[in-house]
TrEMBL record:
GO cellular component: cytoplasm
Organism: Lishizhenia tianjinensis
Highest taxon above the source species: Bacteria
Keywords: Leucine-rich repeat, Repeat
Name this protein carries in UniProt: Leucine rich repeat-containing protein
Entries under Gene3D superfamilies matching the protein: Ribonuclease Inhibitor
Residue ranges annotated for the Disease resistance R13L4/SHOC-2-like LRR domain, each copy included: 61-156
Amino acid sequence: MTREEVLNIITTNDYSEIDRNFNQMISLSEDNNELFNQMFKKVLFKVACLNNDREDLFKSIKFLDLSFHGLSKLPKAVWHLTHLTRLDYMRGNLKVIPKEISLLKNLKTLCSSYNLISKVPKELGLLSELESLWLNDNSISKLPKELGNLEKLKELSLDKNQLKKLPKELVQLNNLKSLRIVDNQLREIPEFIFELENLESLSLGRNRIKEIPAKISSLKKLYYLGLQGNPLTKISENVNELNLITFNISHTGIKDTRFLNDKLQKAKI
């Protein structure tokens, strides 16, 4: 099957044609051609909207992108995609992540940024294979403590929400390498963060944080620390014990940085 033939199928509503050629489509979906992959997303969207009696088509789908469709809820058929490893739903009108998300046991990446999400269900903590969670630009003010059960999580991105604090149970995220909570309402760096020994990148810009405490030195693997746009008044000299490549404290209340060692002077933005 050629890309042109797939395009012809995309332009029709004949699901029997999708059925007959689905395996070949899946094979072609591994193509690195970006334009073709954009076309294939449309096929996947049609498949996701099929009735539940077409579950035989769902078994091979590992990646589903429903971004830019403007839906206020996900199609029920999505919960039958038990082999799905990545689900993207960005720039839509989703207000709540459905608790049925827990049915996607093999999910490794969930991207649901640029929506209207105000509630994150505790069932999200049942996704034991999840490695990347992106919930930027929503209306989230509280996270469930069950997110601490995501032992394989490596990336957590929560920029542009309304978070004032984070559940202490996130201390259990021992494999977390990147944590982003830019443009929120944090007044201090959460204590549990200093116990995330594998953390490499910490982005907390544009919050309400006033101090970088001495415990920051416990993050031995940290190479990026971003606190730009915070009303900082105090930075512990222990920050000199870090091996930072980038140290962003621009647009803060800190003017005198002579206490920083030569390495951090070069890393400073």
